[in-house]
Amino acid sequence: MQKIDTKTKILNAAEQLFAERGFADTSLRLITSQAEVNLASVNYHFGSKKELIQAVLARYLDVFSPALELSLQNIIDNKDRISQIEVFNCLVEPLLSLDAFRHQGTTMFLSLLGRGYVESQGHLRWYIMTNYGNVVATFNHVVREANPHLSKEEIFWRLHFTLGTVVFTMASSKALIEIAKADFNADVNIEGLIHRVIPFIAAGVSSPA
Amino acid sequence: MQKIDTKTKILNAAEQLFAERGFADTSLRLITSQAEVNLASVNYHFGSKKELIQAVLARYLDVFSPALELSLQNIIDNKDRISQIEVFNCLVEPLLSLDAFRHQGTTMFLSLLGRGYVESQGHLRWYIMTNYGNVVATFNHVVREANPHLSKEEIFWRLHFTLGTVVFTMASSKALIEIAKADFNADVNIEGLIHRVIPFIAAGVSSPA
DNA sequence: GTCTATATATAGATAGAC
DNA sequence: GTCTATCTATATATAGAC
Question: Deepest of A66, A111, B153, B168, by most Cβ within 10 A of its Cβ?
Fold first, then answer.
């Protein structure tokens, strides 16, 4: 039996509750009771609820962000002409690797990201762009290379549409997978879901105006 | 000067605050002070905050839902072969007509819908499917007609991807429009946003497997 | 670092006078 | 229908003993 320190216990409990219920609906009391630690320890270790939220997201972004950067640099260095589908396939490996990092890590990360964008009035958006803006810029650059027929602005919009598709799908993945099982007797896991959504967004992004 | 009754004053203030800040972050005190009515009147007229949220959404759905049904029935009756783009264009008129119904009605409705799907743990999803499930079924039917090459299951997934795209985009529409203004000096309104997102989802839904 | 106890603020909801 | 006043629950955050 391994010892888990209080800080990690809090992060583990918080991420699950945040992903399930959202940030506003998750109290520090709920987090600390689930983590079986004292209420006051949240403020001792993180300072405030807002900083806890950032720490929860940072734990994922610190793994995902360099993995995606590497994946993108690889096709930048090795390809003369970058195809649309190659670009989006760059997301698959870094996303799935989060499942090894944490149980249901892929789903967790994307749910948190979605809530971060919708719930917090820009705080998290700002935090993400300030601390992980580089990889966003690289991704943007590669999408531009693969879609020379689209303007910068058009790509801006379509990448946000894409973000919405992925984030919403993953935030609802549990319910969607259950419905698919009940209605179509289909067994779909998170990897299968990612492989279904990629053709959808690839077609959307590269569609003519 | 027209007299607006208390109930309507509350609905008007609530929908604006809900769309801007979300349901959890909007207190009844904030709503009633903005509406310049007494705090206790919310419970008198609506019973609870939850029922107020439903009433706010119902005011839009009661206009939108029959308009979409009519629009869909029109192409069912008059077309032998239904094209993908026609289906999604059915959404445009009913959505934009909400701007006549209420100031910034389209934005308001779609923001509320987005928040309803992301924030509330299924309560609103259930409320919507229970009370407005018919038009959802009709829409599903028409999409199937337009995409005979896709299985029922594939359509199920793609329509949920679509829902995610629209709902996330609209919940973030205010921020996105501001960023587009700052970064590209682009003036985009809600109508422009709808016309940008429709080609995206139409391409995604009809893309080959 | 962790605990108890508590300060302070705010939430939704209601009783009862008018 | 509308008001004041208040109940009750819960929130974040912190002070200070250990």
Answer: B168
Mapped onto helix, strand or coil, the DSSP state of residue B140 is: helix
Tell me the pLDDT tens digit for each residue of A124-139: 888 999 999 999 999 9
**Tens of pLDDT, residues B88-134:** 999 999 999 999 999 999 989 988 998 888 887 778 888 999 999 99
Sign (positive or negative) of CA dihedral B102, B104, B110, B111: negative
Protein-contacted bases of chain D (C-beta within 7 A): 1-6, 10-16
**What are the tens digits of pLDDT across the range B185-204?**
999 998 999 999 999 999 99
- Looking at the structure, tell me whether residues B37 and B75 fall in a common domain: no
The answer to whether the C-beta of A24 is closer than 7 A to strand C is no
Give A-chain residues touching B198 at CB under 8 angstroms. none
Question: Does B192 lie in the same domain as B166?
Answer: yes
Nearest Cα of chain B lies from the Cα of A60 at a distance, in angstroms, of 21
3-state class (DSSP) for residue B207: coil
Query: How many degrees, rounded to 5, is the angle at CA B171 between CA A155 and CA B181?
Result: 45
Asked whether residue A27 falls in the same domain as residue A99, the answer is no
